[in-house]
C-alpha cells in the first residue's frame, strides 16, 4: 500500500497556534517583528531552508519577480547540500505526523512556504 501524502500545512506565524498544527516550523530567515517567541510556539527553525536574502529581495523588490522563476531559484537553493539535509529531516517529520510551516508573509500561498510544502508533499 502506498504511503499517504504527508500532512503539511502553511499558516501565518501571527495566527494563534492550533492544537492540530503538529510540529510548528518557522521557515522565515528573520524572526517576525512584534511576536514573542513564547506566543509563537515554534518547534523548529531550520535556517538552511529559509529563503536567501538575495532571492527574497529579488522576488519582493521593485517590479516584483516572476513567480515561476522564483520557484525555480528557490528549488535550486533547496538542492544545496545543507538545505537538502534539512529538507530530508523535515520530510521525515512530515511522514510521521502533521507539520505546519509558519511564515510572516502576507500571502503565504504564493511564497516560499508554498514551494517548500510542494517539496515535502510532491
**From the helix content, strand content and strand pairing, which structural class follows?**
alpha/beta
Task: Report how far the terminal alpha carbons are from each other.
Answer: 17 Å
| Average pLDDT level | 91
Helix content: 40-55%
Strand tally, please?
Answer: 3
Strand order of the largest sheet: 1-3-2
Low-confidence regions: none
Q: Helical element count?
A: 5
Kindly estimate the percentage of residues that lie in beta strands according to DSSP: 5-15%
Outline, from the CA principal axes? Answer: globular
> What's the story with the biggest beta sheet?
3 strands, parallel
Rg over alpha carbons: 14 Å
Order of helices and strands: EEHHHHEH
Quick take:
This protein has 122 residues and is an alpha/beta fold. It has 5 helices and 3 strands; from the N terminus they run ββααααβα.
How would you describe what is shown here?
The chain is α/β, with parallel strands linked by helices and 122 residues long. The protein is built from five helices and three strands. The protein is globular. The model has no long low-confidence stretch (mean pLDDT 91). The protein has a three-stranded parallel beta sheet with strand order 1-3-2, with helices on one face. It is 41% helix and 11% strand.
